[in-house]
Amino acid sequence: MSEKEQKIFDKCRQVAQSCAVFNLRKASRALTQFYETALRPSGLRVTQFTLIVAVRLFGSTTISRLADTMVMDRTTLTRNLKLMEKKGFITTIPGEDRRERVVVLTEPGKESLENALPLWEKAQREIVDALGHRRFDEMLANLMATVSLVKAP
Amino acid sequence: MSEKEQKIFDKCRQVAQSCAVFNLRKASRALTQFYETALRPSGLRVTQFTLIVAVRLFGSTTISRLADTMVMDRTTLTRNLKLMEKKGFITTIPGEDRRERVVVLTEPGKESLENALPLWEKAQREIVDALGHRRFDEMLANLMATVSLVKAP
DNA sequence: AATTTTTAAGTGTATATACACATATTATGA
DNA sequence: TCATAATATGTGTATATACACTTAAAAATT
Fold first, then answer.
1. B83 touches chain A (CB under 8 A)
2. pLDDT in tens, B84-106
3. Would you say the C-beta of A29 is within 7 Å of strand D?
């Protein structure tokens, strides 16, 4: 290997070992699969579960506000909600401001949430126990810091 | 709110505040956008960049092995590679074992990697500096622990 | 050697994600 | 008030992701 090629190879090692987005995405894939499996009996996907939770917490809210909360592109949210509407978990109604659409949980949506919560708790407990509470809280804090850091500007 | 509804509401708060997959996916979305923007001039998407890095490190390798390394579903990798082949970054050739396909970097692929590396370095430095080295390393370790934890079984 | 099992990869389908652009409605300013 | 700017949302397109199922080839078993 030439000196230049060696340099590039070393940089690649650095990427694999320390790249934030590489490791974060990898962990995201792994953990998503774990929670997807856990939530499957409820009929909710991870994304749908978290969206329902968010709507339950904030109450009926507009798409843009929900997207901002989820740190999700607005158009991504539109597509996700469309699917959830088709499945009957939510509906959207026009707001007072006629440009807005307000997201509302349906009864089936609330029921699915109720079914999913114990499944989530079990999965969550497994992860927390395996990682250790201290480590888990540490990671959570770091993830939140990362989000606000990138979201800030 | 009934007592039961209050209980569900409290659980939802718990999910928002502490759910591993919720916070991990949120951070993943945020950080992905940051790195996508940084890498854009190179013509590589984040996924493509990390895949090229992996192939550069491991040398030509099969799809299954690469998928395992990336903690990525094999069929996901197939689709990602198809795209990268169309764009000319890689090719695949049959292995000695005729069931296997071996992934090989092309010259344009290597060039794109070379262009992307300084862009990655800049983005990475920004994140590490903003989070602080100690915090960053801590997060990295925790992410890796999470991956091996979920991957183990 | 022939049959069965295992392994490597691809396809059909569904969901998740976001950028560029278009449309409709509200707010602002001349 | 009317024209313009700002805001909220939707659509077209491209990429990322994985499950269920299929196909082809190698390995194991009888």
1. no
2. 999 999 999 999 999 999 999 99
3. yes
Kindly state the percentage of chain B with pLDDT values over 90: 97
User: Would you say residue A6 lies in a domain?
Assistant: no
Give the residue from A15, A140, A11 showing the smallest Cα distance to B143: A140
Query: What is the spatial distance between Cα A126 and Cα A120, in angstroms, rounded to a whole number?
Result: 10
Computed over every residue of chain B, the mean pLDDT equals 96
Q: Residue A38 sits in which domain range?
A: 21-151
Based on the structure, what is the number of domains in chain B? Answer: 1
Domain membership of residue A3 (yes or no) is no
Q: What are the DSSP calls for A64-133, one per residue?
A: HHHHHHHT--HHHHHHHHHHHHHTTSEEEEE-SSTT-EEEEE-HHHHHHHHHHHHHHHHHHHHHHHHH-H
What are the tens digits of pLDDT across the range A58-99?
999 999 999 999 999 999 999 999 999 999 999 999 999 999
| A37 contact to strand D (CB, 7 A limit) | yes
Nearest to A27 among B29, B135, B147 (CB): B147
- In this complex, which of B30, B57, B151 lies closest to A147 when CB atoms are compared? B30
Does any CB of chain A come closer than 8 Å to the CB of residue B152? no
B26 touches strand C (CB under 7 A): no
Position A142 in a domain: yes
Kindly report, residue by residue over B121-149, the tens digit of the pLDDT: 999 999 999 999 999 999 999 999 999 99
The Å distance, CA of A98 to C1' of D1, is 22
Here the CATH number for the domain that contains residue A111 is 1.10.10.10
CA Rg value for chain B:
19
Residue B73: CB less than 7 A from any atom in strand D: yes
Residue A110, domain member (yes or no): yes
**Pairs from B106-110 (Cβ < 8 Å, separation ≥ 24):** B109/B52, B109/B84, B110/B56
∠ at Cα B94 (B93, B96), nearest 5°?
A: 130
